[in-house]
Design a protein that fits this description.
One of its GO terms (cellular component) is membrane. By secondary structure, the chain is mainly α. Helices cover 78% and strands 0% of the residues.
């Protein structure tokens, strides 16, 4: 029995198991978030008692509410993540928030209950986004960091984009309760995996607390921890802005695309969900892409990805006729956008931990004493949250006031700006210091 316990604990603390559990948590969180996207207009009318003329407005408000809760919750989670070694408790709290949100969606009887459900989803996203990505980076070896972060990035994207497809299909076939049947099943598996995670450093800390120093806590020394301010370096700000753009584009499309295909092509809720499939399929390629782009500098890949995405994004404006040609065109263009988004996101998520090492080396903090991943991913999560807030509001407003064509033009210009921003921010790398030259050479190869 002792051997079995040791083997089980070793398995549960392995980087592979932690990667699987956290990727599943990331997928579940964004899947439950995305599942209501295509059915939100119907929920607002049937459960929220909303007038049909106000559906677009309240759809934008509900999607933005999620982003606001995510924005406010991420800094606190990032601080907790860097200060304390214990991660299981906040992960379980994040699960509770997501489970509560799902129950509220099923039982909602007015718009205020739907708003509360979105707040709970946002708080859950703050926990899973910051802790999940930080733990993946912490438990990954340098040679596997890129592919592991690509897995985490793909899990986020798959959940965000598979949710609308599944939600549209289930809602059209089984109604509101049936639409949330799959999320409830995923949540059961999710909580089991989260509870099984074992952190080796946490166990070691508990052992030394019991044997040597009862007064020792799990906090990390403040002398080796940088504040949020120290991470406001051009390299990190460039990555954060890229995350903001990606999130804004995805959330703007999620907000406007279902209603656009309903009004233009007269598709059902099933069609409104399946239209996200072209955006989803490319995320399967995130891991091969992460391996392939190792032959190029991240700056080249990110800048090229954003610039290439500008063309199909603007071209979406020419799909406003209810013809087969325009329907094929919108699917093809969304697929190209999905490829570009997948490529850029996979590179950025892996580059965050390398940027942290680069910045901490400037303050003579070694990799062994590094404690800034939580804050760095909190900044990215805040950028993602800001995009989830700005994207629906701006996208919904522009589409409502000026039309689909103007909205896609604005998103295309945003891609162009992000490409130029990525180019100049990555040029602003700090000079090397002789003391950390060996370590910085390794990071330099990843960043440039």
């Amino acid at each position: 029995m002792g051997v079995q316990n040791v083997f089980a604990r070793k398995t549960r603390s392995s980087s592979t198991f932690i990667l699987v559990a956290l990727c599943f948590a990331l997928f579940t969180d964004t899947f439950v978030y995305g599942i209501i996207v295509p059915i939100l207009p119907f929920l607002l009318i049937s459960h929220g008692n909303t007038d049909s003329n106000d559906v677009q407005k309240w759809s934008s408000v509900l999607l933005a509410t999620y982003g606001l809760a995510l924005l406010l919750g991420s800094p606190a989670v990032g601080y907790f993540c860097d200060k304390y070694r214990t991660r299981k408790a906040p992960l379980v709290c994040g699960f509770v928030a997501m489970a509560l949100a799902t129950i509220l969606f099923i039982s909602a009887s007015n718009i205020w209950v739907l708003l509360l459900a979105r707040v709970c989803q946002g708080l859950s996203g703050a926990v899973v986004g910051v802790l999940g990505l930080s733990m993946i980076a912490e438990t990954s070896s340098p040679e596997h960091l890129g592919s592991n972060m690509a897995c985490g990035s793909a899990s986020l994207t798959w959940g965000m984009l598979c949710g609308p497809m599944t939600g549209g299909f289930l809602f059209s076939q089984f109604g509101t309760v049936g639409a949330f049947g799959v999320p409830m099943a995923l949540l059961v598996v999710d909580i089991v995996l989260r509870m099984l995670i074992v952190q080796e450093d946490e166990d070691e800390t508990k052992f030394y607390q019991q044997e040597d120093s009862p007064l020792l806590d799990n906090s990390i020394s403040e002398n080796t921890s940088l504040s949020f301010y120290h991470f406001l370096h051009p390299i990190m700000l460039g990555l954060v802005f890229s995350v903001l753009v990606i999130s804004s584009i995805l959330s703007a499309i999620e907000t406007t695309l279902p209603l656009y295909v309903l009004d233009t092509y007269h598709w059902s809720s099933l069609g409104a969900g399946l239209v996200f499939l072209p955006l989803t399929i490319p995320s399967v390629l995130s891991i091969p892409i992460a391996h392939f782009v190792r032959h190029f500098t991240p700056r080249t890949v990110v800048v090229t990805g954003f610039l290439l995405m500008t063309v199909p994004m603007i071209a979406l404006r020419w799909t406003e006729a209810n013809t087969v040609h325009h329907q094929v065109a919108i699917i093809s263009l969304l697929f190209i956008v999905g490829v570009c988004l997948t490529t850029v996101q996979a590179i950025i998520m892996g580059d965050v931990s390398n940027a942290v090492r680069k910045i901490e080396s400037l303050h003579c903090i070694t990799e062994e004493n590094s404690s800034g991943l939580g804050r760095a991913y909190a900044l990215c999560n805040m950028a993602f949250a800001a995009g989830q807030t700005l994207g629906p509001m701006a996208g919904g407003f522009i589409k409502r006031e000026f039309g689909w064509g103007v909205m896609t033009l604005v998103l295309g210009i945003l891609c162009l700006v992000a490409g130029l921003s990525s180019f100049f921010s990555m040029l602003a790398a700090p000079p090397k210091k002789g003391k950390n030259k060996a370590n910085e050479n390794d990071v330099e190869g990843v960043l440039f």
